[in-house]
Amino acid sequence: MAVFTPLTDAQVSTFLSRFDAGSLVAVKGVPAGTENSTFFVTTDRQELVLTLFEQGEHEELPFFVELLDYLDEHRLPVPGPLHDHDGIALHSLADKPALLFPRLPGEHPHHPNLAQCRALGDALGHMHKVSQHFPGHRPNPRDLHWLLPMHHQVLAYLSPEDQALMMDEVEIYQGFFDKAPDLPQGALHGDLFRDNTLFDGDRLGGMIDFYNGCTGDLLFDLAIVINDWATEPDGRLDPERYATILAAYQAQRPLNTSERDAWPMMLRMTALRYWLSRLLVVYVDPPAHDLTPHDPDQFRTILKRRLEDGALPLPEVAS
Ligand SMILES: Nc1ncnc2c1ncn2[C@@H]1O[C@H](COP(=O)(O)OP(=O)(O)OP(=O)(O)O)[C@@H](O)[C@H]1O
Ligand SMILES: N[C@@H](CCO)C(=O)O
């Protein structure tokens, strides 16, 4: 269902001729995904992914290309976009912006094992180590500056108890982050859930779908990862996956004192960020397609658990 704009073989062939990528053998629509049209393209030389951008801020696409180029140059497992004979990556196809990527190996890990958690923590830590020097700039579109106005839009759909929970939380984050010392900054993935990674066995084949990529607090990215990768269905943290991801991450980039102090609050704020974005999809701005939306209550449950249990202790950094 993630082909919103069908393409003919002739259109794909003509598009491919701009690149040094070989001649078309086969093209196949990819059913996964909800935002863009995605195709697997086989040429006589390689396997590729063609993405047509259906929505979102098209003027921000050059930022994503610059970020992927930078991370690819720094040997992170990301799909560095192909550039054409003139060095240009971003083109138009069927009147939509289009990018061509290498197809990375692997499957999304639904139940990640500890080796996969270690690989993910290591890659994210490596990414954040180098992304602090990334020259691009795109303010985080889902941080506290977004939560503050947007949470008002969903309050009418919530029970009185949930309204109080959401309003109290947003006020607490504002009080906390207004006074907290600045946190280390860099480029973030912004949505590094399991279904935005590919694993070939225990090897991380790639981190994909960088269209929430931005610059801001690195800790925000890490908290999103922990809330998805190391959380049980009842919202509890899984101690082993938690410790494994955080130890591998900190072997690359140790958290500083301000980040350690902000950690429990960041876990809560990023849980609320997804509770809110999913509520907005369900009640305020439903997409045109009829795919089942993600369940907002999953992140309400996670938020309540973080509130009741706090965060587990952060692993100490090996010296
Ligand atoms: N470079 C790649 N290598 C291999 N598979 C890929 C690659 N890029 C995308 N895919 C596959 O295509 C699917 C859809 O891609 P993507 O997540 O970018 O789409 P989307 O419409 O933006 O989805 P989402 O709903 O996650 O925002 C992915 O789940 C993955 O299976
Ligand atoms: N990862 C998001 C969906 C894509 O932005 C969620 O689980 O709500």
UniProtKB/TrEMBL annotation:
It is an enzyme of class 2 (transferase). It comes from Halomonas elongata (strain ATCC 33173 / DSM 2581 / NBRC 15536 / NCIMB 2198 / 1H9). It comes from the Bacteria. HAMAP family: Homoser_kinase_2. Its EC number is 2.7.1.39. Pfam families: APH (PF01636). Belongs to the pseudomonas-type ThrB family. Pathway: Amino-acid biosynthesis; L-threonine biosynthesis; L-threonine from L-aspartate: step 4/5. SUPFAM superfamilies: Protein kinase-like (PK-like). Residues 27-249 form the Aminoglycoside phosphotransferase domain. NCBIfam families: PRK05231.1, thrB_alt. GO terms for molecular function: ATP binding; homoserine kinase activity. This is Homoserine kinase. InterPro entries: Aminoglycoside_PTrfase, Homoserine_kinase_II, Kinase-like_dom_sf, Pseudomonas-type_ThrB. Gene3D superfamilies: 3.90.1200.10, Phosphorylase Kinase, domain 1. Keywords: Amino-acid biosynthesis, ATP-binding, Kinase, Nucleotide-binding, Threonine biosynthesis, Transferase. It catalyses: L-homoserine + ATP = O-phospho-L-homoserine + ADP + H(+). One of its GO terms (biological process) is threonine biosynthetic process. The keyword ATP-binding applies. The keyword Plastid does not apply.
